[in-house]
Amino acid sequence: MSAVLGISAYYHDSAAALIVDGEVIAAVQEERLSRRKNDPGMPQRAAEACLRQAGLEAQDLDRIVFYENPFGRLERVVLSSLRAFPRSWRHFPAALQSQIGSKIWVLDGIAGALGVPRGKITTVGHHESHAASAFFPSPFEEAAILTVDGMGEDESTAIWHGADTDLRCLASIPYPHSIGLLYAAITAFLGFEVNEGEYKVMGLAAFGKPSFQNEFRTLLQLQADGAFELNTQYFAFHTDINIAFSPRLERLLGPPRRRGKAWDLTGDETDQRYADIAASLQWITEEALLGLAREARRRTGSPNLCLAGGVALNCVANARLLRESGFSRIFVQPAAGDAGGALGAAMLGAIELDRERPARMTSAALGVPICNDAARALCGSLGLHWRYPGDILDEAADLVLRGKIGAFVRGRFEWGPRALGQRSIIASPADPGMRDRINQVVKKREPFRPFAPAVLSDRASDWFAEHDNDMTPFMTTTARVVERQAGDIGAVRHVDGTARVQTVTAQASSDFCGLLERMERNGAPPIVLNTSLNGAGEPIIGDEADALGFFMSHPVDFMVLGDILLEKGANPS
Amino acid sequence: MKKATTASAFASRIVTVGQLIGHFSTGRRIFMLPLLILILISSLLLVLAGGLSYVAPFVYAIV
User: What is the pTM of this model?
Assistant: First the structure.
């Protein structure tokens, strides 16, 4: 058997994942430890945290697998620059400086940082890593796989078939034809930050109507066999590192939205137009994914589909795929974006050494745990008052029911961009005003951003339809709120009548499950509003020091930190 | 965690150069090998001449 470390790095969301004897021991995104949002650097802290969790040294590793081929990436950069010449001449120095100056030496950097022989480090393809990260942790023996990303070495999209320990690529679509880059370019057009604002565009889409369908058909031409072609005349990301779209796009869609301007979707016609553009983007994205999924089903005949790549984090599209693509079951692991490539790379390395498929993923709690002793010591040194209640989950449930906003910090932090009850802000889901309060006062973000509900898995049917699937445990899809119960959960029902629901079981998160059980025992629905525990522009909280820093600087009423409870009334705000 | 020595770091880079040449020597890529050498030289000149050094959002799309 073996110890294999997977690494993704140097573009965005760097991460490390460790598999020992076929079991995923740890998977950690660097940003949680470095405190730099979307940290793209060498994930040394994450790698060390994974090794600590397993009680191993770097020298004990049998193999380290990097999630893409740096030479394949260089080849694509050179070729695409030549194809786009002379428009590409301005970015050429920066592109080459980045490639030749650092990126092709990435494997040497890993060997140097971890102190391991260079010979232990191998690479796999970017989309192969994604496909592995989607299929091997899934509950399926065999499945069709779609990897849909900004780009890999050369491809942006691929259809795969996975069976037991094998992955086979059936078709691919080359760069620059990319749904991910289309989404990113329109994200920039709408005044949001690329690689960060895509979630906001997805939330904004629900406020608009897809009235720009013809324009988006011009931008992305869909074909009958699931393939698509991006009309590159409207974009500039392949020729310029500073701008995403060309003046031609502005002639097609109108002027872009100014970054940082406050949103008004209640009376401002201009902002309503931008919401319509977001809705149209969401529409064409879903249409493109549906075409790909139907082609994947036709080619594989499988009833199961796994998705990965940044586009697979579009939970609204995932829900539509489950309804309309013809697949019976769909699985999307929580870190479907580039961070997940580390997990896929580790799994490919482990399979090559062990000839066995690693264990399926049942929980996303794969990060670094809270240390109760360190938390108490830190509270002491900061002069904070804390209590050690007999049933801390019951007290937390009671505070939520009394309308308090809490931070819930227990166990190992989550793998992926979603807070799944280990590093969460929790509140009552009943009052719609709670959404505005948390958006404006705690998270300091756009007023249209929705919040997600977490619900006991075996009680979810009372409040949600279409929730019983393989994605809801990881919050990678949406479900419809049952209309007659909508009044119970006004704070977590989005404007389109859906919610990005998380179904919670004791197996996946015993503490969070315990909290929800106590909510129900106290006479309330077993549901909480659940949002990520982070301030504006910050990564989600990692350790106890981050958590206490958040508690002291944000207006939450209480915090469950490991086995202790802190309340604002007893402490300075 | 044990850090690599200067000698092992140099040896590691030699391995990478070998793999890079190997990658561009196979199949249809062989036509790119002279171009790669030209690019390595010209990129060195461009960097020394003060080429762009910042990283912008869409650097991901290009590099």
Answer: 0.92
